[in-house]
Design brief:
The structure is a single chain. The chain is an all-alpha fold. The protein is about 60% helix and about 0% strand. Strands 1-2 form a two-stranded antiparallel ribbon. Strand 3 and strand 4 form a beta hairpin. Helix 2 packs antiparallel against helix 14, helix 4 packs across helix 11 and helix 6 packs parallel to helix 17. The protein is globular, with a radius of gyration of 27 Å.
Length: about 650
């Protein structure tokens, strides 16, 4: 039959000289880069500087040392953001992800420092642990997907909740601290008024403003609260005059790092939790900007976190992760260029070279800081509760994990002196409620879900918690509702797979679909093939009809027309749609070449080719759905709803 485009025509298709640039890779004009980058810095600033201020105050640093800590934080935040957004080699995800010091590390850092004498002496052990934990993160990055199975929502939600709750006493202590004497004075209503007033300002801004103003509510609360304190004589800028205009915080400012095994283990646990959070943030950002996230992207992200954390420990700062506030800002503004975040990184590096600015920040009165911290830390706890809302608490094992971990964490948080009653090698574990709670949650999850025959949750998407026991007990209708999407809802495949129950593990569940899919009659195979959409077809809104084809979503108009023309010619020739596993053939020219090379096949041979491609698609969909098959799915589904 004559073709609209003769055989071999695909050989003449030349790559276009002008390819559409994905919005993520678009380099905006310098004025826009500067403006949008500064917007990211403003949204990020309050959360960034709170970490060194809280840590410095808790471990007894002087005002001058605190200024160095703030400068180091901003400087390394800038470097970390550039590494993550610009990327080099296999380091950095190349998405608009702004990096900052994580709140998850605050309590463990304070515990490590205080267990080793506090002040700058304690910081040396902190920096030793941070550097080692950063190196561990870097080298474990390619293998992290195998560890994700040990960090389901019941673990991450518990740990994030504990982090928020355990940090609240730090905010409360600041809220009742006299700015002049830096001593706690809970009976003085003046300090409480500053704290509650700052918190009220933040709440009112969130209530009556929308968009960007709402994202900087904490920053505005700090500015207004500090201004009121200054007018009333409770804020002093004495230290600002002594600070230099320009300065550089040298590496290992306080001395060579020191190493403690317990401190290192504690920080590695923190980095593992951070890695799970980061994975969720990467998937959320990919969803927002329209980029499909692959395992290699997660590894590149974590390598960047590891490198940034090593740099942080070297330049007197702390562990790094993606700031979720700025992930939300990307969605809010619609500006998807990663170069905007790179520009923000450059601005932060400049701010890190201005000690005078850090001195102003260090002058914020403790009660004002405490009011803002109450909002931030409580928000962290709420995020943890939101994650726990996805957990199936009808399963008593999940209930025991959360209750035991939270109880032990609060024991240590409320009565920190209990660490003195345990052997020296356990002192660090019992010195931080966050570390003890995290370790407890991880160990109990392994005990209940990874040891024994009952099995962990394997399918069903976020919050469903479907275990193999439940899969094996499903009715045919329940099984079809859960797994039908693997094969476009084609009944005969699902029914035959169901007949192979009970399933010993996720692997046997996958095999059931593979065997059923390839064992159909000619008529059944044609029914299955015809259930798939044409390659490159779109709905009325311009959205691809198949998420498996996301790699074809960023083509030039003429390239997309070539794909549509190929699909139309194929359907006219064979009577069924062209099916290609686009996840394995992401390059446009290869998809086109593959399609045109198949159009001259015999119908029977091409039907076999189509079935092979369908089997590949089903495998990828299985990986997306079934947690045991692809542990990254757990993180992928875990936090997307926060940004919708």
């Amino acid at each position: 039959m004559p073709c609209l485009l003769p055989r071999g025509a695909h050989m003449s298709v030349q790559p276009t000289t002008r390819r559409r640039v994905h919005p993520v890779d678009e380099v905006l004009p310098v004025p826009k880069l500067a403006a949008y980058g500064f917007q990211h810095v403003v949204a990020f600033y309050a959360g960034a500087v709170l970490v060194p201020i809280i840590i410095g105050s808790a471990i007894g640093l002087t005002n001058e040392q605190l200024i160095h800590l703030i400068n180091a934080d901003l400087f390394t935040c800038g470097i970390a953001s550039i590494i993550q957004s610009v990327g080099f080699w296999k380091i950095g995800v190349r998405l608009p992800l702004l990096q900052g010091v994580t709140f998850a590390g605050v309590s463990p850092v304070i515990a490590i420092a205080m267990a080793n004498g506090g002040g700058t002496d304690g910081l040396l052990y902190v920096y030793g642990a941070v550097i080692v934990a950063g190196l561990v993160t870097f080298f474990m990055a390619p293998y992290f997907s195998k560890l994700l199975r040990f960090f389901p929502p019941v673990v991450t939600g518990t740990v994030i909740t504990i982090i928020g709750v355990a940090l609240l006493p730090v905010a409360v202590n600041d809220a009742v601290t006299n700015p002049a004497t830096h001593e706690q004075d809970p009976t003085n209503g003046r300090w409480m008024a500053y704290a509650i007033g700052t918190l009220l300002i933040i709440v009112l801004i969130q209530r009556f403003f929308k968009g960007f103003m709402a994202t900087i509510a904490v920053l505005l609360g700090l500015v207004i609260g500090s201004a009121v304190a200054f007018v009333l004589g409770d804020m002093s800028f004495d230290g600002t005059g002594e600070a230099s205009w320009v300065g550089f915080t040298q590496p290992f400012l306080f001395g060579a790092p020191k190493f403690s095994l317990i401190a290192i283990i504690s920080m590695i646990v923190v980095m593992l939790i951070i890695a799970v959070e980061t994975t969720g943030s990467v998937y959320a950002t990919g969803e927002i900007v329209g980029k499909r996230i692959k395992k290699d992207d997660i590894a590149a992200t974590l390598r960047a976190d590891g490198v940034a954390t090593v740099i942080g420990g070297t330049f007197n700062s702390f562990p790094y992760t993606a700031f979720s506030e700025n992930v939300g800002l990307v969605r809010l503004t619609g500006v998807r260029s990663r170069w905007v975040v790179a520009a923000a990184g450059g601005i932060m590096i400049l701010l890190g070279l201005l000690p005078k600015t850090a001195a102003v920040v260090a002058s914020i009165p403790p009660p004002v800081l405490g009011g803002a911290a109450l909002a931030l830390f409580a928000t962290v706890a709420v995020v943890g509760i939101q994650t726990l809302s996805k957990v199936d608490f009808t399963d008593h094992r999940n209930l025991i994990i959360v209750a035991t971990s939270l109880g032990l964490a609060m024991l240590v948080t409320i009565q920190p002196s209990v660490s003195q009653g345990v052997p020296a090698w356990l002192e660090m574990l019992f010195g931080s409620g966050i570390v003890l709670g995290a370790v407890t949650a991880i160990v109990l999850n392994v005990l209940f879900f990874h040891i024994g025959s009952r099995g962990q949750a394997v399918a069903g998407g976020p919050g469903k918690g479907i275990t193999l026991d439940k899969v094996n007990a499903m009715t045919p209708d329940e099984f079809a509702a859960t797994f039908g999407g693997l094969v476009q809802g084609t009944p005969w495949v699902v029914e035959r797979a169901y007949q192979q129950a009970p399933f010993a593990d996720a692997h046997s569940l996958r095999e059931a679909f593979q065997e059923s899919l390839l064992a159909g009659t000619t008529e059944e195979q044609l029914e299955l093939i015809n259930n798939y959409p044409d390659l490159g077809s779109e709905d009325a809104t311009g959205t691809l009809n198949a998420s498996d084809h996301i790699g074809l979503s960023n083509l030039e108009e003429d390239e997309h027309e070539n794909i549509v023309q190929l699909a139309a010619e194929y359907r006219q020739h064979f009577g069924f749609p062209l099916v290609i596993c686009a996840r394995e053939t992401e390059r446009y020219d290869r998809v086109l070449a593959n399609g045109w090379s198949r159009i001259e096949n015999a119908t029977a041979a091409e039907r076999s080719f189509a079935m092979i491609e369908i089997a590949k698609i089903a495998n990828y969909r299985f990986d997306d759905l079934v947690a045991d098959a692809n542990p990254i799915a757990a993180a992928r589904f875990g936090r997307l709803t926060e940004y919708r």
